[in-house]
Amino acid sequence: MFEFERITYDQNVMGGKATIRGMRVTVSLIVNLVANGMSADEIIEAYPYLEREDIRQALHFAAWLAEETVHPVELAS
């Protein structure tokens, strides 16, 4: 498993969702901003307490979560 030192979980912060360094900024927010066309510079301008590495790690974490494994199943005749 990868080590995501900037991704944190706390039941008292954002309902336990994955956040950036314990702040009230969720990984899903970062991924949605990127998906909607915002650049890292634009995100940092909107959220000046974030760092470029926060964004990179949020995207890496989301990609890791989205990993899929296909297990073929043979149906009985």
Q: What is this entry, summarized?
A:
By secondary structure, the chain is mainly α. It contains 3 helices and 2 strands, in the order E-E-H-H-H.
Number of helices: 3
* Main pleated-sheet profile: 2 strands, antiparallel
Strands side by side in the biggest sheet: 1-2
| Gyration radius, in Å | 16 Å
What's the order of the H and E elements?
EEHHH
CATH class: Mainly Alpha
Assigned CATH superfamily? Winged helix-like DNA-binding domain superfamily/Winged helix DNA-binding domain
Keywords:
single chain; 77 residues; mainly alpha; Arc Repressor Mutant, subunit A; two-stranded antiparallel sheet; 3 helices; 2 strands; 39% helix
Reconstruct the topology from this structure.
Elements lengths: L6 E2 L10 E2 L6 H9 L4 H7 L5 H14 L12
Helix pairs in contact: 1-3
Outline the structure in words.
The chain has 77 residues and is mainly alpha-helical. The protein has one domain: Winged helix-like DNA-binding domain superfamily/Winged helix DNA-binding domain (Arc Repressor Mutant, subunit A). The chain is built from three helices and two strands; from the N terminus they run ββααα. It has a two-stranded antiparallel sheet with strand order 1-2. Helix 1 packs across helix 3.
